[in-house]
Amino acid sequence: MEAFGENDDEPCYLSPAHEGSGAQASRRHRLRQARSRTSGGKKATETNTAKAIEMWRLTVHDGVWAEVQPKRNITIAVLNDVHVPFQDPTAWSLALTILRDVQPDIVVVNGDFVDFFAISRFSKDPRRKLELGLEIKEARSVLQQLFERVPTRQWIFIEGNHEARLRAFIWNRAVELIGLDELELPNLLRLDGVLYLRHPDTPCPTDTFAAPLVRMGMLYILHGDTFRMVSTAVNVARCLFLRTLKNLIVGHWHRADVWVQKDFEGHEHGCWIVPCLALPRPHWDSGRIWGQGLALVEMTPRGFFRVELVHFINENGYLLAFVDKKAYRQRRDKG
User: Fold this and answer.
1) 10 Å Cβ neighbour count for 239?
2) Which residue segment(s) compose the domain that 111 sits in?
3) The whole model's pTM is what?
């Protein structure tokens, strides 16, 4: 087994020795195989749907959480905290370029894609309160870029705390609108063919999950807002792992953190915090440690996996990233 330390600049492999060759299969080989795929945008073709059924089994539980059981080696991309209309256009363009090349089998939009700043409870320029419609229109446009440029077989959208702002606003300020299907976020964002996982409205039994998430093998992917924890923690990944004792990929904290450790039997477990794709904002503590990037996951049919955090690096007016020994470079948008 290849073991790596706590340095999140290195990929972490979680697999027994006899699984190594499968879990760490060359992405280049998989890309060559993927060239024949048809585009898997929001209106997936019947061919892509059939191929997806052959590659994994997808089970959805009450619209809150889903389970993916791979039948073959698959690649998953995780995008976090875009916060439209505060997305970083350079970071977003770089992410789209990387995903276009990687061609992941599954793309998880892991919460806070839309900021919903217009209806937030925080102080703001009063004119911002009139821009909810503009936020939604821009979110549709940015999503369309993602659907058109990134070929994949399955889209999963996990609701974050910012998406939950819309429901809270209707409950607290516009009860007359409760029950209108047109105001459900999947309809507002036109998420046709996208699996949308939402926060539950009622208490959940202890044998299920009270937060929207995806379970893939031995790995859980969720936004992270439901973990009550101070934002000043030195290593968020370590804190979350010690709290859950499960393999986690989360976002929410707008920074990159990693914690990996072995158990008594020599098996590795860990937690990965995926950085954001948003701009620092003066109304939300722009002095925090701010990371940008995305996550790529390779997973075997037995549920073993490898996580790679792809960091976006600032250098002389450009953003840089490295994936599978390939360097990506995106010029900063001066606008």
Assistant:
1) 17
2) 12-331
3) 0.85
